[in-house]
């Protein structure tokens, strides 16, 4: 049976999501930050009649849908909900779950990313947090200096227009944090988190100024960011599609735990 979830279902939902907190960081974060009663967000759960537990969940966040299940689930039931939405833009999630909708929902295009998780930092990576290496924790006042760096990074071109607004909102709301390194008042390396919640966080926005690359600066910033989050008891994850970037993250201790698919309508 599939039904709309409410605040009364919070703990039952978390029982399911805690099984894989890294893979579920978006749903966990949205529930913790926004609850169940929002116009831009809705959650449906498939209830197992044998024990009353939630076995699968479907999140709508604005025009995007994210399904999750840790086993077989009612694909057609979730698809019926999505088909009723004439404004749907995207479906994303663990590849095995998203692929279950092949032939059930028509996708126009999509992409697949590697999904990696960090539970313990490689002890050989040292990133002491001190004024000596000039790693700082960003505030809203640092947004312009940080975006002046990311504006120059080709990989960030698609998100450039809203980067300042997005970063300000993230820092102000506490749903993410940014660390950065400066030389002569210029930000030369940075790394951020997004979708932070009580259990997990995602590493995003890793960048180094072109003139300062191949010095391990971004690695140092990411290592310090990861160290602080791990000390808070959070698991860390990230997406990547560049094998070279994957090597760098694996050196830190990240391990591939699956793949993530994004399908556009």
TrEMBL record:
It comes from the Bacteria. GO terms for molecular function: acyltransferase activity, transferring groups other than amino-acyl groups. InterPro entries: Acyl_CoA_acyltransferase, GNAT_acetyltra_YdfB-like, GNAT_dom. Residues 133-265 form the N-acetyltransferase domain. This is N-acetyltransferase domain-containing protein. It comes from Paenibacillus etheri.
